[in-house]
Design brief:
2 copies of one chain form a homodimer. The first copy, chain A, is of the alpha+beta class. The first copy, chain A, folds into 4 domains: 144 residues, 3-Layer(aba) Sandwich (Rossmann fold); 241 residues, 2-Layer Sandwich (BirA Bifunctional Protein, domain 2); 106 residues, 2-Layer Sandwich (Herpes Virus-1), CATH 3.30.40; 74 residues, Signal recognition particle alu RNA binding heterodimer, srp9/1 (2-Layer Sandwich). Helices cover 34% and strands 26% of the residues of chain A. In chain A, the strands form 8 sheets. A 9-stranded mixed β-sheet of chain A has the order 3-10-11-21-16-15-14-12-13. Chain A has a 5-stranded mixed β-sheet with strand order 25-24-26-27-28, sandwiched between helices. In chain A, a hairpin with a 6-residue loop joins strand 5 and strand 6. Chains A and B meet through strand 2, helix 2, strand 3, strand 4 and strand 8 of A and strand 2, helix 2, strand 3, strand 4 and strand 8 of B.
Chain lengths: 658, 658
């Protein structure tokens, strides 16, 4: 359809150019950039803010929209998923059934002196780790920072040697920290004298705190509701409608992108632990007997980095690199659907610019799984906060559909027409109501109910002995063949009815966005103050900067023309016609991650050519409008690399811009 | 860049073909379609639902995403607006300042017998209108349905003649219904014996009910919060950051797309009055001295339909059709910025498929304006529920920025460097503290404060009389030149500091979506059961249907190839390879609003050509893959009409598909 300009086309994004080696990551400088350029601001900043609530300014908002757009293309469109949009406000009854009202909670400890509140597991972890560090220091061993310090606030470390036995106890507790009950944590706090790490004041026993925000619906306040903690429940409740929409074909997936809410006890990890966040969730419904994925073969040779639960339970963090085909074959990954999605998650993250070497798949240990999951792999991204869970890929089995179905008495099942009807035999009881009623009178109903509840084994036994006995409310009833007879009948089923299992890839868009920013950030070796965000063109907030060389009036209509032209071909652009010199203007837009820049200069006025600059290499080409437009479409569409462009057009060195 | 296939290109969407005259709109049939094809379902349907909460299934979810995408292109990208994403959860303090805690409320009446709750204004309206209808019937006049019955539940009408005076009182009350206080409504209810319209039981006096959902933030419950009732506040609070991001240039606009929440008292109008809804809001900041828009000239000749407040206050609903240039000149529309946005709103709505003749701009009357607005125009769309407010375009003046600034002591202003410094003279008081203190002792501070608060007029008078007198707490103080002297000084200002005014176009996406569905719905004259949704291609949920003529295996790879090819060029598509006949499959997809369909038949196997069918006309063309792809891109991009396509390729009549 479109003329092909280049010999090679790369389907996925490739780093545009070999970047200079990056200096050490400077978190403070990045934070300053993110605030200064209004990527992000504390929510309600002029009202002194509220912990765990953040606003996205224009660059992060566009970045988020582009990530979501890619997500939709990569998952929903590519796999024909059924995207829906269900409400945030959820009546309590739904979340009671799903188990969230009872179990979606953390344990917290209050310092009665200061009123400060700690999340119990984080507190124990923090204090014991500080003591272990102090021990190491006292023993003269080298102390290095654990990368996994996401959840902890640093407490002061006192060099103090521990008993070897105590040291080993601490280590065991830390390995199992995600698996303790509230009561157990309370005992640990007493046993190991765990106190407020800053003031050393004693704390109250752990109390459970449900993480859902509650509200009430309607004017009478009679309907209690919550803000959803995940988008999944809205999908499960619509299962029957979704299946019908899919012409009753299995397997299939629904998807939803939307805000979810968790009332974190004391959020402290910046953008990584927030109370309101955008999720993108897929619920893929499979036949529990196979859990196989038709497209697994397409991805089976993709290599991933695994951290299986066995490794962790042995107290290790060594990565196993395997193809997904091997991992499924070895039983590390349970089935091909789970395997397929792990690869698709990997491909998505790398496509939007995540550094592949900073991505691993960690399996949940038995004791840390959410109440609804029977297996779970997290895509974790390495950041300055440690390895962060950014995507969860859980096998929720038939849990949710089963509990909602039971509660509402509505079938949430698949009916499959069997090619070969299934023939089987089973016992059936035939009750003689005419004699049962008069004999048992007021107990007749209870007796009948008990008979109807008999298992196959009970009926078989009764048919052999000729009678059946049972107790109801302490009274024994014995019934012979006068009241009930048992016969073996042959049944034929031409429809198989089953509750599908659910594989759920669940994306925390905000965490991915923040990790991506960290992975994309570097500063020019010649000037550490000049930060660059090397977002891939497909997700960069703005694709192209337009800079007139100076304030000369002849540039004004040309800039206007270019802005409209680029907009028409779908290239988002921004004009920077401020009076700063051109190098300064480019530097400012490197901070926003704008991958390309067009300079309009005096030669443009003469021959309509412009220069196009690439952000990471700062190299330029010069070409006509028609060529530059095509190049930009191909670059932002991921169809060509900057090297290929430079090879074709030659590097332009007429101006010095940096 | 792309080869131009056609002579004429239409920039905006045009109806693709002359449709047959539509039969009478059948609401019940449409509702059935919307449920059956899972456009929409009551939220938590299997739990018996919650009033005012709805889920969007795949077609409505895609429709919504496409409307939002067009909105972003039409407003944010076209006008370089700064889109941001702020949190839904909002601390109470912010909404106290904005006036929502005190004033964002409706009045409700409870029926103590049934527990049923009525919105007071809707109740009065409903009962009085029913009585007026009864009067008309009794007088033998023809009774026709008011189109404005959005908010009312039908009550039974008893034919009963009213006194002429009473009738006129009722009519006056109805005209002013949006302007009564709770107390006044309570008096009306007593005076006119307004009762539960179904049971005729008496009601309790109106009570105020705040429409915001509340919650609490953090584990202590100390921070009270609300779910935002509008996205605007998050934009205002970030004003200073936004202005800086815009290089301190004025005017500019911020924008936000996101969910808002209103705890409606008793929502009963389907998708038009819901408790959770998607909004898209623009806050355009202007200099209060001009409120002019630089691009107004581009739109000044566009004609719009106006219903100004003067017309309504005279009890009329006649439409005034004027160009926006005339409307501004005549003072009907206050300023060119407001005028510019009315046109842009009109253009957006028509572009996505709203019927222009069912769109009017109604100005708010003084008594119905929101507490923050000084002028407001609603874009109203005509639906089976009457004329519905779908977009508000309010002049919020400096209200919000002023109140937040006062509350937080943070300046939310623009500083403009004046080319010509402003020179002016003013009176200044010089206080002799050395004598003031000893003389007035404990009152000295109060006296000094009073002096500092003197106006220019007071100072001028004092300078003439030589002394100044005032009362503080009942005591009179007189000060002569020994204590204070007044002189006239010359000041020079090179910076003008002002609080910008805000023009706010605010879109209810769900209401637009529903109205659009009504405007797009019709059924084939030959079969009233065959519904069609004629969405314009740019916003249709799925652009192209792929149908193999039969289940013949040779079609399978071709269908797969086409699905991938269309996906690659960004044309969302859906395969229908069910066993239904091809006409039935097209009919099913007409219900989803899919504008185009490709049929793969035996000729395709031979020569790779396919047929392309257009939904509204059901006509077809036949062409090669490369041509069909280009045609689809041009059609879905709004670059060409179906008539032009048929003209170029000729109508294909080889198969009978319908």
């Amino acid at each position: 359809m479109r003329r092909v300009l280049y010999l090679a086309r790369s389907r996925t994004y490739q780093k545009m150019t070999a970047r200079p080696a990056r200096p050490v990551f400077d978190k403070e400088q990045l934070d300053s950039l993110l605030s200064r350029r209004f990527f992000v601001a504390p929510g309600f900043e002029i009202y002194a803010g509220v912990a765990g609530l953040y606003d996205y300014g224009p660059p992060a908002c566009a970045l988020q929209a582009n990530i979501v757009d890619q997500w939709r293309k990569h998952f929903v469109l590519e796999e024909d998923m059924l995207e829906i949009d269900t409400t945030i406000i959820t009546p309590a009854e739904v979340l009671k059934t799903s188990g969230h009202v009872e179990r979606f909670a953390d344990w917290m400890c209050k310092d009665p002196a200061s009123g400060e509140i700690f999340r119990a597991d984080h507190l124990i972890e923090q204090v014991l780790e500080a003591r272990l560090k102090g021990d190491k220091e006292a023993r003269g061993e080298s102390v290095h920072e654990s990368p996994d310090d996401t959840k902890k606030r640093k407490a002061k470390v006192k060099p103090l040697k521990l008993d070897n036995a105590v040291k080993s106890e601490y280590e065991q507790i830390l390995a199992k920290i995600d698996g303790y009950s509230g009561k157990e944590m309370g005992e640990l706090i007493v046993q190991y004298s765990i106190r407020n790490p800053v003031t050393d004041k004693p704390l109250e026993a752990p109390q459970e705190f449900n993480l859902m925000f509650d509200t009430s619906i309607g004017p009478t306040g009679a309907i209690k509701g919550y803000l959803r903690p995940e988008t999944a429940q809205g999908q499960f409740l619509n299962f029957s409608r979704l299946l019908e929409f899919n012409n009753n074909r299995m397997p299939f997936a629904s998807a939803q992108i939307g805000k979810s809410f968790r009332n974190e006890i004391s959020p402290r990890s910046g953008l990584l632990r927030v109370r309101e966040f955008l999720m993108a969730e897929i619920e893929h419904y499979v036949d529990p007997e196979t859990k196989s994925h038709a497209r697994f073969n397409e991805v089976k040779d993709v290599k991933l980095c695994f951290l299986p639960k066995d490794t962790q339970e042995a107290g290790k963090t060594d990565i196993t690199e395997l193809t997904i085909g091997q991992a499924v074959e070895m039983g590390i990954v349970d089935n091909t659907t789970l395997g397929y999605f792990l690869v698709r998650i990997h491909q998505f993250l790398v496509k939007i610019g995540i550094t592949a070497s900073k991505l691993r798949f960690r399996q949940h240990m038995k004791n840390e799984m959410a109440h609804y999951a029977c297996d779970c792999w997290d895509a974790e991204l390495q950041t300055s906060y440690g390895w962060i869970e950014c995507v969860g890929c859980a096998d929720r089995s038939a849990y949710d559909l089963t509990v909602h179905s039971k509660k509402t008495n509505r079938k949430l099942v698949v009916r499959e027409n069997l090619e070969q009807p299934r023939v089987y035999h089973e016992w059936e009881g035939q009750i003689n109501k005419k004699v049962l009623g008069p004999k048992f009178k007021k107990d007749a109903k209870a007796v009948e109910e008990r008979l109807l509840a008999m298992t196959q084994e009970e009926m078989e036994r009764a048919s052999q002995t000729g009678s059946v006995s049972f107790d109801i409310n302490g009274q024994t009833f014995t019934l012979n063949s006068e009241f009930v007879t048992f016969i073996k009948v042959t049944r034929k089923e031409s429809v198989r009815e089953y509750t599908p299992n659910v594989i759920e890839p669940s994306f925390g868009i905000g965490r991915i966005l923040y990790s991506l920013i960290e992975h994309s950030y570097w500063s020019r070796p010649e000037d550490s103050q000049r930060g660059v965000l090397s977002f891939p063109p497909i997700i960069a907030p703005i694709k192209c900067l337009l800079v007139p060389l100076s304030g000369s009036p002849e540039f004004i209509p040309i800039v206007k023309h270019w802005a409209a032209t680029l907009r028409n071909i779908g290239i988002s652009n921004k004009v920077d016609d401020s009076s700063a010199n051109i190098g300064r203007r480019y530097a400012r837009n490197d901070e926003l991650g704008t991958p390309f820049g067009i300079t309009i200069d005096f030669q443009t006025v003469k021959d309509k050519t412009v220069t196009l600059r690439e952000r990471d290499s700062t190299t330029q080409i010069r070409a006509s409008e028609i060529d530059i437009c095509q190049v930009l479409q191909d670059l932002t569409g991921g169809k060509v690399t900057w090297e290929q462009v430079v090879q074709k057009y030659g590097e332009f060195q007429g101006q010095s811009l940096d």
